[in-house]
Structure formats: C-alpha cells, structure tokens
Design brief:
- GO terms for molecular function: ATP binding; ATP hydrolysis activity.
- This is AAA+ ATPase domain-containing protein.
- Keywords: ANK repeat, ATP-binding, Nucleotide-binding.
- By secondary structure, the chain is an alpha/beta fold.
- It has 3 domains: 211 residues, Alpha Horseshoe (Serine Threonine Protein Phosphatase 5, Tetratricopeptide repeat); 226 residues, P-loop containing nucleotide triphosphate hydrolases (Rossmann fold, 3-Layer(aba) Sandwich), CATH 3.40.50.300; 120 residues, Helicase, Ruva Protein, domain 3 (Orthogonal Bundle).
- Helix content is 49%, strand content 10%.
- It is built from 23 helices and 13 strands.
- A 5-stranded parallel β-sheet has the order 4-5-8-3-9, with helices on both faces.
- It is globular.
C-alpha cells in the first residue's frame, strides 16, 4: 500500500508458509518499479522547480516581492496547473498572499489541476511522480483523489480555514461567488460560522460592486456606441432598442412581463445582427444566452410540439421542446424568433402566453418562468411600404438639407436621421400586421415595433468598404499583396445595391465584380509577393464619370515591388485564358 511516499506492509498469515512469499514478491515488484521511475520523478521535480513557487511555498514574502520586481509573472502557472497565489493561500502564508496581490496576481484564476490520475494521464507522466510533486510543491494536506479544477485562491484559503488569507483575498476584490468545476463556491468549504458570515457579507458587497462597475461602464460606453461599432446604419432602430434595454437594466419596466420586440424591414439590413449584438451585450460569457429559432420550421399545426415538447405517449416526449429546453437552461436569454410571420397560428397562441405571463408550459406539464428573457421577432411584412416611405423621407430630408446649405454656404451638410410617424404606423403598418396575424391581443403584447430602413448612399459606401477591407486582408495574408481602390470603385459597386436584398446584394456585387477579377488574375497570371493591386473604374466612352450610365467596369492593374509602372489586367476571363490550349494526350 502506498501512503504518502512510504510503503507499508501488513503481515500475512496463511496455513502454508509458502504463500507468504506472494506479498513480498508484490512488494519487491513495486519497489523495483519505483526505482525505474526514480529518474523520471527526479527529472519531474527538476523541471517543475521555480524560484517564485518555491518562495511562495516557504512563505518568503521578501523573496517573492524581489522576484516579481525582477520580472517574474505573479500569474504564471505551474506545469501541473496552479499559480503562486494558490500555493500561498493553501499554505496560509498571508504575507505572501498580500505581496502577490500587490504585484498584480489575479485572485480569480482557477487551478487547472484536476486530480493525480487525470493530470498524470494528461501530461503523460507517472501518477507517483505527479502526486509527489503535488505534495512537495503545493500541499500534502489535501485529498489526492479529490478534483480541484477551478478552485481559486479563495477556495484554498477556505479549505484550510485561514481567516486572514480569506480577508486579504476578499479585500483585494476576489469574487466569492465563483464556483469550481464541481459547482462548489468558497463558502461551501467554510468550517466555521464566522467564516460563513464573512463570506456572505462579502458576496453582497461584491454583487453591489459589480453592479456599480457595470453602471459606470455603461455611462462611459453606452449601448448605442457598442451597437454602432458592429452595425452600419439603422440609427433609429439602435436608439429604440438601446432605450428599451436601458429601461430594463434600470428597473423601469414591468418585471412581470418579458420585453418583446418586433423588427420590421426588408431582408439583409441588420435585423438578425442587431439581435445577436444585444445578446452579446446582455450575456457576454454565455453561449446559451442567445436562442435562435427559424419560425419557417413551424408552419404546420403538429409542429407546435417541436417548440414545447411532445405530450406523454407521443414520439419525441423524451427529447423536450426546442424552446422550452433552452429556456430552462437560460431563463434570461435573448430569444430570436426569425420570420415569425411564417409560423402557424397555434404557435402564435403559445407565444401569446409566453409574452403575456412570462412563462411557458412544456409537454411534460412543467412550467418554465422566463420573465427576464428578451424576445425579438423579425418579419418582412410591410417591408415594401416601409422602404418606400423611408426613401421618400430621406429624399425630402436631403432636399431640405441642400436648401439650408445653399442659403448658408459655410454650413456643412447635416446628417439625416429618419423617423417614422405615428400615423404611418397606425394607418399603414398596423393594418397589414393585423390582417396577417388576425388578432389584436398578439400585437398588443409587443413592447416596441422597430423599423429598419434601406441604406443611404453613405452607408452603402461603408458596406462596400467593409467588404473590400475583408478581401484586402485575405489577399495580404494569403498572397502577400496589397489591394487598393478609390472612391469611384465604391460608387460603381454601390450600383449593385438592391433594396429588397439589403447588404447581401452589396456582398454579392463585390464577389462578382472584384473577387472574381482577383481570382481569375491570380489563376492565370499569378501575383508576385509584395505587389500592389489597384482597382479602378473604366467608364468607357470618353473616360468621363458622366458616362456612368454605360455600366462602368471594374478593372485591375498591378505594380510589382520593384517596378514603377502598372500592368493592366483584363476583366474578361476570355482574355485571361491562354491563346493555345494544350491538347490532352492519353498515356
């Protein structure tokens, strides 16, 4: 039997003394095996020896501070997973804990050491060597069979019941609510009532501190700015959504009902992307915080069971519903119901209960409460009316802006912000929605109707530039060439914009006109490394941009790294092909 670093042998009695040789043989084999592993274990200790870990283990705060000032990383990890702060905490060396925290140690880093056997298999080492290293360089007071993955320094301080280390870590901002891989928080390891009371008080303080930090960050970096960094245009939609989210965060909302949006507008203008960015803002660290359902999959009555789960006795009962199963895991998720107008009316009945009461009953009869969730529906209903109205408003605003700048020549052209009137919503959009959904109570549960407008000329330029930047980076990474263009190229590519398809039409236009040209040129001519590729527009005729109605052509020219002049490339694949195609010969 192996206990610590010693073998113990208990006497074995048997009627036949010859059998006594068996345990001695087993003992000899184990000793021999340990001898063969001795060099490996010594090598293990040599490799893993580090002055910062050694000083933390011995409680030498002066040496720890000197090493950190000389460049040692206080957050470095031992090859088996722990940090110097973990060592100091599990040893109860409060002075070392304070020094490491002052030098920048992160109190919330978790231990990567699972247990002896798992770590030995992971590293390809012998378990005896791993256990010896754990005991000598970390602690010999822990259960080597237990799993310590995710344990923070605060966990270890609670395990050894060291109030001074616990207080030092909490004062430094350690999160008392962090759970290890087993789901246990530091308070679960507290041995005394005083320790538990201390941790409970700090849990409340920490939550308040996190809320204050989040509020301060929101003041310095509002949600509108975050969304505008990811989404081009749609300022009115962003403002509406951000305002509603801000009311929710501040508690200025009916907490008995979830927040419900209906995004209206044509395809490819940012409805889905805005929903994703809202989810990233509200649930940044949760992969389950965004639930997307394509409602075109629920066009038939019997498909309601897919949403909430089949009742007992029916196929799919054990699988659960696609919505209820995910909401059970994350009741505060952002739920995107894409193309909700395609769903069966019975699905809308289920959603009506969900929006009205913030709860939903699955096929097993269990109720899932999700009053803190946010539901975002998208629809293409009334998209033509919204697009035409937005284009009319934009034209009127541009005419008025030009008139103002004409009267005041020094004035700059103001940015144009569109706003849909209440009359348009009530007398144009709502009748279309009511005619389709057939019920006022469903529309009455929607908090905000959010309108998405066609892109302006400036926004189209941003979209085209974003696409060209993407392909320029790919050309640089793959072929080590630089791609450039001018404003006329942007104008020419913007002509491919289709209001019905939104940004997708711009993406496809860039692929047709630019990416195909680059691909063909690279295939038949090749790109020398370090070359400069330049896109330009050929208007034909007299070469004037006034001939833009003649279908301007995107052209490509290249300048080698050591060359002065550009070489023209044809935009026609026919011209790029070799003049003589070699005949295939059979072997």
């Amino acid at each position: 039997m192996y206990n610590g670093r010693r073998f113990r042998h208990s006497s074995y009695s048997s009627p036949n003394d010859n059998f006594r040789v068996i345990p001695f043989m087993a003992f000899g084999i184990m000793v021999a095996h340990c001898a063969t592993e001795d060099d490996e274990n010594k090598k293990l200790s040599t490799i893993y020896d580090h002055p910062l870990f050694r000083a933390a283990k011995k409680g030498n705060a002066i040496a720890v501070e000197r090493l950190c000032k000389n460049g040692a990383d206080p957050n470095q990890r031992h090859p088996l997973g722990w940090t110097p702060l973990h060592v100091a905490a599990v040893q109860g060396n409060v002075d070392v804990v304070k020094v490491l925290l002052k030098c920048g140690a992160n109190p919330d880093l978790g231990d990567d050491f699972s247990n002896v056997n798992l770590k030995a298999r992971e590293k390809g080492l012998h378990w005896l060597g791993v256990m010896e290293t754990r005991e000598e360089e970390f602690s010999d007071r822990l259960n080597n069979r237990a799993t310590f993955s995710g344990c923070t320094a605060l966990h270890y301080a609670c395990i050894i019941d060291d109030a001074a280390c616990v207080a030092a870590l909490l004062d430094a901002g350690a999160n008392p609510s962090l759970a290890n891989l087993g789901g246990h928080k530091p308070i679960d390891y507290a041995n005394s009532d005083a320790m538990r009371e201390l941790l409970e008080s700090y849990i409340i303080k920490y939550e308040d501190m996190v809320k204050e930090r989040a509020a301060e960050e929101r003041r310095k970096y509002p949600l509108e700015l975050r969304l505008k960094e990811k989404i081009i245009g749609q300022e009115a939609a962003i403002a509406t959504v951000a305002s509603a989210i801000r009311r929710k965060e501040g508690g200025w909302i009916d907490e008995e009902h979830p927040l419900v949006f209906l995004f209206l507008g044509s395809s490819g203008i940012g409805k889905t992307e805005l929903a994703k960015q809202v989810s990233n803002y509200l649930n940044p660290k949760s992969s389950e915080g965004f639930i997307r359902l394509d409602m075109s999959e629920y066009q038939n009555k019997h498909e309601v069971a897919k949403l909430i789960g089949s009742p007992p006795g029916y196929v799919g009962y054990e699988e659960g519903g696609q919505l209820t199963k995910k909401l059970k895991k994350c009741p505060n998720a952002v739920v995107l119901l894409d193309e909700v107008d395609k769903a069966h009316p019975d699905v809308l009945t289920v959603l009506l209960q969900l929006f009205d009461e913030g709860r939903i009953t699955d096929g097993r009869g269990k109720t899932i409460f999700c009053k803190d969730a946010i539901f975002i529906m998208t629809s293409n209903l009334a998209n033509d009316e919204i697009a035409d109205h937005a284009l009319q408003l934009r034209h009127e605003a541009e005419v008025a802006a030009k008139q103002r700048t004409k009267n005041d020549k020094e004035a700059e052209m103001p940015s144009i912000s569109l706003c849909i009137s209440r009359e348009f919503c009530e007398f144009i959009v709502r009748p279309i929605l009511k005619r389709h959904f057939g019920r006022d109570e469903f529309l009455g549960r929607i908090n905000e109707f959010v309108f998405f407008f066609p892109f302006s000329r400036n926004e189209l330029h941003q979209l085209v530039k974003k696409e060209l930047d993407f392909w320029a980076k790919k050309a640089k990474d793959r072929y080590d060439v630089d791609l450039s263009w001018d404003g006329q190229v942007l104008d020419a590519l913007c002509l491919g914009y289709n209001v019905a398809y939104g940004a997708r039409s711009v993406k496809y236009e860039v692929e047709r006109e630019v990416v195909s040209l680059l691909s063909n040129s690279q295939q038949f001519h090749g790109f020398p490394r370090g070359a400069l590729l330049q896109l330009y527009v050929d208007y034909g005729g007299n070469g004037s941009s006034t001939d833009s109605a003649r279908n301007p052509q995107i052209r490509l020219r290249i300048k080698n790294k050591d060359s002065v002049e550009f070489t023209e490339f044809s935009s026609s694949v026919r011209h790029l092909l070799p003049t003589a195609v070699p005949q295939r010969t059979d072997p």
